[in-house]
Specification:
heterodimer; A: 484 residues; Amidase signature (AS) enzymes; 3 domains; eleven-stranded mixed sheet; 16 helices; 38% helix; globular; B: 95 residues; two-stranded antiparallel sheet; 3 helices; 2 strands; 32% helix
Chain lengths: 484, 95
């Protein structure tokens, strides 16, 4: 018998339906991997007992023929999703041992489809970071690390590492500026950030509300389609959730891409682009061409300004969203003389360095006298970035770029630590997508000469995840990336 | 627009965060590094460009103003630092 944790979600479901394996066996196999994989620090909370109980319920569903779309599939959940009765901290000290009395819509949708949760996954504090080094539970170690421990990427680093090391069948992630795609690229797994509005944000701890979106991180493209099918959909509890019909994403798997126009943006050939990444980018374009697609050169002229605009808008929204953590009704409290001191003591002790940095920047750009110069200016540039994509999609159906300009770097890397902007620059290919609200996927394309995974990004039109799925599947077939 | 120590102190208070006196200089420098970087935005001509607040172009929906949940004060109080008679017990918050 092969290792059950090698199975993709789609293939595990086939075996479950055929009663070749049971949900309890599958869950036990993943629990074992999650336990032996503790060195990666991917989980911040594991609930074995509850997972096995759910697995037994799923077993009954299979016996009774009442099995649902993801019956008995063991998932890991990013610690940003509120999970009823299961500790949820956003990997911040300030939330203490907060245990939500309610379930986020996305996780509720997954539960309604029969999935079960093994536990909560590590992430950068409040999803602010690109290396998982800002988590109050410590850094996630990339399972692909060789001699020195490497970062798994962030902020959904625990999700990507757990999927790579087979510690869950698939995971949820969230993406505000690349937090699903960058860790997916770094860990050699596949993740999609759907169109803004596809997945409800209800019950997801807010970072930057106009940019945040949930999505799956999986072993392959087909699993992403199946997971997203069971996460997406209109929700009255999120006023920004879309009423547009959710197509069956699985139906795009295997569709041909003959005549599809794939855009290559000139502006993404930046100075910081690793030569191996650049080479794989060309290879990926060739692969899509051989599958019948046409390659067209496109221009996204405001690319250079996406990061500065993002680092005004995201901190501004974050400073406002994080104002609620005051130490009064829940989480950590550090007393003081009077109310202001209580707030200050609590927030100074409860938030980590990167979160404080962004709250300060956000507060500044929103403050009287600076609002127009920074915040309003950034929102205008955001419009121009979106317009760039609108223009580009008149010439192409999908855009191909690398996910990250570099390969995974060492934990505690000096260059990243000495200047926060160096870390921010890693998101250069991913943030524009959030600013424009578009869907985008990262999938592994191959290994660098250091034996580390590199990812390619496919960007689609708003609400056209379907084209991403069919293109990504074809690229996956050509790339033949070997998972860990 | 470079900020000075006084501005950092003011922004820290608005954020209800403490910047220790010995960290003030470092925080200011970091602040200015980030601000001068985002000021690249000034190179972009945004005359007559409408700010993009949200990419969502669907209009907000009205809903019936009815109670659709309730009777869950116990669950809500689960994370309260202290509770009495079904209420949060907290330090004095109205000064």
């Amino acid at each position: 018998m092969t290792d059950l944790t090698d199975l993709t979600v789609c293939s595990a479901l086939k075996k479950l339906k055929a009663k070749e394996i049971s949900p309890v066996e599958l869950t036990n196999a993943y629990i074992e991997k999650a336990t032996t994989g503790q060195k990666y620090n991917a989980y911040v909370y594991i609930d074995e007992k509850q997972a096995l109980e759910k697995a037994r319920e799923s077993e009954n569903h299979y016996l009774n023929g009442t099995n649902r779309a993801l019956e008995g599939i063991p998932l890991g959940i990013k610690d940003l999703f509120c999970t009823k009765g299961m500790q949820t901290t956003a990997c911040s000290r300030i939330l203490g041992k907060f245990t939500p009395p309610y379930e986020s819509t996305v996780t509720q949708n997954l539960l309604n489809s029969g999935a079960l949760f093994l536990g909560k996954l590590n992430m950068d504090e409040f999803a602010m970071g690109g290396s998982n080094e800002t988590s109050c539970f410590g850094t996630v170690v990339n399972p692909w690390s060789k001699a020195i421990p490497l970062v798994a990427g962030g902020s959904s680093g625990g999700s990507a590492a757990a999927v790579a090391a087979k510690m869950c069948a698939a995971a949820t992630g969230t993406d505000t500026g690349g937090s699903i795609r960058e860790p997916s690229a770094f860990c050699g797994v596949t993740g999609i950030k759907p169109t803004y509005g596809r997945c409800s944000r209800y019950g997801i701890i807010a970072f930057a509300s106009s940019l945040d979106q949930a999505g799956p991180i999986c072993k392959d493209v087909a699993d992403c389609a199946l997971l997203l099918n069971n996460m997406a959909g209109y929700d009255a509890k999120d006023s920004t959730s879309s009423k547009k019909e959710v197509p069956d994403f699985c139906s795009f798997i295997g569709q041909d891409i003959k005549g599809l126009k794939v855009g290559i943006p000139n502006e993404y050939r930046s100075d910081g682009l690793n030569t191996e990444v650049a080479k794989y980018w060309d290879t990926a374009a060739e692969m899509l061409k051989s599958a019948g697609a046409d390659i067209v050169n496109i221009s996204l002229p405001h690319t250079k300004y996406a990061l500065p605009a993002y680092y005004v808008i995201a901190p501004a929204e974050a400073s406002s969203n994080l104002a609620r953590y005051d130490g009064v009704r829940y989480g950590v409290r550090v007393d003081g003389n009077g109310l202001d001191e209580l707030y200050i003591n609590t927030r100074t002790a409860g938030f980590g360095k990167e979160v404080k940095r962004r709250i300060l920047i956000g507060t500044y750009v929103l403050s009287a006298g600076y609002y127009d110069a920074y915040y309003l200016k950034a929102q205008k540039v955001r419009r121009l970035i979106k317009n760039d994509f609108d223009e580009a999609f008149k010439q192409c159906d999908i855009i191909l770029t690398p996910t990250s300009p570099i390969e995974p770097f060492a934990i505690g890397d000096k260059k990243m630590a000495e200047n926060p902007i160096n870390m921010y620059l890693n998101d250069i290919f991913t943030v524009s997508v959030n600013l424009a609200g578009l869907p985008a996927m990262s999938l592994p394309i191959g290994l660098s000469s250091n034996g580390l995974p590199l990812g390619m990004q496919l960007i689609g039109r708003a609400f056209d995840e379907g084209t991403i799925f069919k293109t990504a599947y074809q690229l996956e077939q050509c790339a033949k990336f070997v998972r860990m | 627009m470079a900020v000075d120590n006084e501005t950092v102190r003011k922004v820290a208070f608005l954020s209800r965060l403490r910047v220790e006196p010995e960290k003030l200089e470092e925080t200011k420098q970091e602040f200015n590094k980030i601000l001068s970087w985002v000021e690249e935005l000034n190179e972009v001509d945004t005359d007559n460009v409408k700010p993009l607040v949200s990419v969502n172009d669907e209009s907000l929906t009205m809903r019936e103003d009815v109670v659709n949940a309730g009777q869950m004060s116990e669950a809500i109080l689960q994370n309260a630092p202290a509770q009495e008679f079904g209420y949060f017990v907290v330090p004095k918050v109205v000064e």
